[in-house]
Amino acid sequence: MSRVSEIAVSRPGLKKGPETSGLAGLWQRQRTPITRTAAALVFLGVWEWSVRAGMVDPLFLSSPTQVAARLFQVFADGTIWPHLWASGVTAFWGFFLSCAVGVPIGVLMGRSVLLRDTLEPFIMAQASIPTVALLPLFIIWLGIGVSARIALVFVGAVFGIVVSTEAGVSNIDRRLIETARSFTATEWEILWKIVMPAALPYIIAGMRLAIARVLIMVVVAELYASTAGVGYLIFQAGASYDTSMIFVGVVILAAAGVGMNTLLRAIEWRIAPWAGSRE
Amino acid sequence: MIEVREVSHGFPRDGHGGDMFHVLDDVSFTIKDGSIVSLLGPSGCGKTTLLRIIDGLIRPLAGEIRIDGTVVRKPATDRAMVFQEFNLLPWRTALRNIEFAAELHGVPRGERRGRAENALRRVGLDRFANYFPHQLSGGMKQRVGLARALSTNPKSLLMDEPFGALDPQIREIMQIELLKLLEAEGKTIVLVTHSIDEAIFLSDSVVIFSANPGRVISTLDIELPRPRWSNDEEIKASEAFVRYRKILWHLMKEQLRTSNEEGRA
């Protein structure tokens, strides 16, 4: 990096880098954040303007300022917390269980051809069922409540984690396993010192994909089997034509999705820095 | 002493047994303690398979390996392998890659670090202890691979084309460094190579293999003076070296010719 800029600087008539300052320098260093912010501002501006100019009925579209005011209000008066808590509990346990079950199954399938060939059609069948169709069944088994919601989230998210874990485990460089064997590794040591670290980037990628499914399933489950939660809030707001409140829910869900993804990405960078350099 | 006794091995051609593809056919020879022996032959002669059989990674279909009189059944701590593709764990630093061997050998935690640091110093990479493999050059990676094997203080070192993935000049430098590091150690070294010059320069004796299936066709003792690393240029230009190369090339050429014709048939 530094070498490249040295060469650039040493070439006559081509002065760049440290010299530029002020707005031009800011643009050079922060181009993407600037364009992103600009895009968001344009979008929100057009939205706000079209409502204020009377082009769209605020009942259909609300407006960014109304949504922001509402968002501030629900946090200020505390009415949002029970909903966040309810959705958070469902999301957390659903996600946790799908990892706790999905990762071991994926590892076993990746390590044993027999097991993979046996289970693969069932896993595929499970993946092709629209998960929502199972909710009535969970309600019958578990009652209308948090257990049924967690079950739905679990079933929706576990597939992706199994598949990506299995891919990570079966793609392991066999030479590394042979190397460990040559240094007298036991099967258990191969699992913990070779298989798991090698599969970790895949497992985290699977978790990131699963996050999106978790959010979908939380909202769907709350539609039918809840009296609280962000999804519940959205549907209640819809029933009473409270457009601003719908957007408040959507913004919270989007923020949760982006936040979780960023967190997992940060974890991935911390514990698997070698994986990034391969791309 | 490593004894290779009437070893034959093969792989099923279609994955179901029955029709076998023979890679080794009735191979026997003996390696004295403290000597450096090269297994030389065209690719496909089973020399790499034989090295894995000696290590205990593969069980031969027939015959056996004895090390100091004991039959080899699985890998053990008295020998260590160095691999052509280095086989370092990408998620571990150079130092932690070396510690990996000691971990698997059950060396206590406190002792591992010191051993690994020592091994890294011996291969001249102490400054790179915290580098990850993808940050190291090929030659450096193989030094780490060598340090990993040496850190366990094995009685014998099994090297599978250890410099085959390096460019020619680095390869020669690594050969010199290997001798410098080990010439006084008295370790037994079994080296798989397809480079005639490498085999002559490093070895006390060379075992020459035919291909398809691998058989021992000849053994040549290399009587060049040691140490060889301090005056490698003279040794490589010496009359004896040239004579050995002529003998080996003659034998190899015949093998390459026959295996080539078989390939065409």
Compose a concise summary of this entry.
The complex is a heterodimer of chains A (279) and B (265). Chain A is mainly alpha-helical and 279 residues long.
CATH architecture of chain B: 3-Layer(aba) Sandwich
Give the helix/strand class of chain B.
alpha/beta
- Would you tell me the overall average pLDDT of chain B? 91
Q: Average pLDDT of chain A, to the nearest integer? A: 86
Quick one: which chains have the greatest interface? A-B, 22 and 23 residues
The level 1 CATH classification of chain B is Alpha Beta
- List the helices and strands of chain A in order: HHHHHHHHHHHHHH
What is the radius of gyration of chain A? 25 Å
Largest sheet of chain A, if any? none
Strand % of chain B is 15-25%
Specify the CATH homologous superfamily of chain B: P-loop containing nucleotide triphosphate hydrolases
Helix content of chain A: over 70%
Number of helices of chain A: 14
Q: Give start-end ranges of low-pLDDT stretches of chain B.
A: none
Q: Helix count of chain B?
A: 8
Order of helices and strands of chain B: EEEHEEEHHHEHEHEEHH
Determine Rg of chain B (CA atoms, Å): 19 Å
Q: What is the CATH topology assignment of chain B?
A: Rossmann fold
Can you offer a commentary on this structure?
The complex is a heterodimer of chains A (279) and B (265). Chain A is an all-alpha fold and 279 residues long. Chain A contains 14 helices and no strands. Chain A has helices spanning 2-10, 22-29, 31-52, 58-61, 64-76, 81-111, 113-128, 135-142, 146-170, 174-182, 187-224, 230-239, 243-271, 273-278. In chain A, helix 6 (81-111) runs antiparallel to helix 7 (113-128) and helix 6 runs antiparallel to helix 11. Chain A is flat and about 75 Å long. Chain A starts with a helix and ends with a helix. The model of chain A is unreliable at 1-17 (pLDDT under 50). A six-stranded mixed beta sheet of chain B has the order 6-7-8-3-9-10, sandwiched between helices. Chain B has a four-stranded antiparallel beta sheet with strand order 2-1-4-5, covered by helices on one side. Chain B is globular, with a radius of gyration of 19 Å. Chain B has one domain: Rossmann fold (3-Layer(aba) Sandwich).
